[in-house]
Amino acid sequence: DLIWRFRFSLVDDKRALSKFLLSVDWRQANEVIQASELLNQWRKRAPIDITDSLKLLSGSSGFRRTVVRDYAVETLEQCTDQALSMFLLQLVMAIKYEVFEEEEDDEDDEDDGEEDAEGEGEAVEVPKVQVGALGRFLIKRAMTSTALANYLFWYLIVECEDPTYGIYYKAVFEALKAEMAKTPLEGREKGSSVTSDRGSALGAPGGHPPDSRRSSDGSGTMLGLFQEQCQFFMGIMEEQIRARDSKGKKAQKESALKKNLSKYTNVSGRVGLLPVPLCPEVEVLGVKADGCFMFRSALYPAVVTFKKQPDETILREEVQRRKAEMTRRTSLNNKKISKLLGEEKDVDGHQMGSRSGRESRKSRHIKGLADEVKHLPPTNTSTIASRALNEEYSVIFKSGDDLRQDQLIIVMIRLFDSLLKAEGLDLCLTPYSILATSPTTGLVEFVKGSMPISAVLAKYGNIQDFFASTNQAEDIPTVRETYIRSCAGYCVMTYLLGIGDRHLDNIMMLPGGRFFHIDFGFIFGRDPKPMPPAFRLTQSMVDGFGGEEGFRKFKRLCGQVYNLLRRSAGLVINLLHLSKEGSVPDLSYHPTLTANEVIEKVEEKFRLDLNDEQAEAFFSGLIGECVGALAPRVLEVFHQIAVARR
Predict the structure, then answer these.
(1) Count of structural domains within the chain
(2) pTM for the whole thing?
(3) How far is CA 345 from the centre of its chain?
(4) Which region ranges are annotated with the description Disordered (predicted)?
(5) In a domain, 496, yes or no
(6) Cα-flanking dihedrals φ and ψ of residue 391, to 5°?
(7) Which of 24, 8, 103 lies closest to 56, judged by CA?
(8) What is the rounded CA–CA span in Å between residue 101 and residue 130?
(9) Domain of 298?
(10) Digit-coded pLDDT (tens) for 561-577
(11) Are 323 and 414 in contact (CB under 8 A)?
């Protein structure tokens, strides 16, 4: 009542808009009229930002009105493709709020509801259901970006199976397919984003290379591409299920899988290349059946290796970087490098001239760039050479598991990573890709070369010796710096997200120092073990920092990361509110808390009552508690005994 009484004094404060909308009695026609007029004043005098627009798309009763949601969607128009990709999963979850509200409003007067729906003008009609403003916006943006279209396509496929809201998602999916069918692949990508910004770890749109090579005859459509993609990758999923259910032990199952995957050696000639569903900037030519294997577990997930089209943009950047380094060395009279430069030109010219006429001009160009990279010496500062030259990409195909919870956590980690990079802080994270393809199947990026910390300690004794055994001596300081940064990042992020069931088998290491977490079966404070620490940090991990100075740097980084992420607490909380009906077990179906109570617990972890100095001291205290915690050490022993018995 107080907010409503002073409503005319609030229109210059964007922070007051959401509170005002919650104070409106939407059953009173005169209040609805005033609210609409005041909303227009807010739009002009104190426009909201992206964080506030996400809040207005949530399921709160005061926000589930067409005039409110239209304003929120209008604000989202400002988003770049890269920013939109960070929120796309949650925005798809928010679709249920707009269409369900229309049905609720119309159930008392069916005829009036039909008139209102027709008055929408732009709405795409499907029997009994119309696509609202948010759905139309997402479809429109997807038509300008293959990567956004990819994620929207798969997110909708999963949501179509929702027993409550599936009818609404099917309407949006049909509208998406209708637009895709009208969108030709050839020439479509001019000036639009297709691949991800490699400067962030979002794994979603941001680059601008052309995409015309997918349709050799120019008649292909975006719908045709994604139908081919779905058929190809879900066909492989069926082969994994068939091999899993076949008789015999692991070796027999793997043999059956490899035999059945031989028919997937090459993708359809109509498209030539297919984007990988969980990482669409990676395009594959087919399966390398001999490189596939299965994990020994009840569900026998399969690792399938694909032949990959090298990334043209990365190759070009690497060639330029290496040529610049070669020029520098040549200027110092390095005759050996000069000789290599001459050989590189001859090799490139010979290979480019001997290409088969069946290969496309683009493929020959990319192969030529790859040859250049191979024959130019790497630079000391090059960080992308391995990715540029990597012609394989491996994916774990899982059936029998719901990956939507893991998918949400990876999306949040990527968001955190992007926020920190925007502040100039790169923590060397490894937010590998996860995509649920149904409520019981999904794809996970396979991170080659990674080892659980338990295996590192068993084989090398300690993390320092692991680094020494897998790296050149001159690289150790850089490797240790990478380790400290990534460890700090994941400690803060797993604390904020309440990641539980942490043991040394689901915390991973890479030889280059990258440290990361996998398996997010317990989140938002849930843990199967008693007395869990705030986050997992053992003495063996601390020893890897290389001494007291490394440990001090780790603690400083943790405080810096914690304070930077606290500034975005509102964004995180708003995204979780959009996710609370997204069939995420530990959020949507928590055994003891409502979804709102779970989100409140997450908000408490940001300690918004503290200033930066106090918050840094608070997190430093958590570090001390975690390193010295006895219960996790005892439970780790029992865990390793249980693993050994299995």
Answers:
(1) 4
(2) 0.81
(3) 39
(4) 102-125, 185-220, 343-364
(5) yes
(6) -105, 15
(7) 24
(8) 12
(9) 221-309
(10) 999 999 999 999 999 99
(11) no
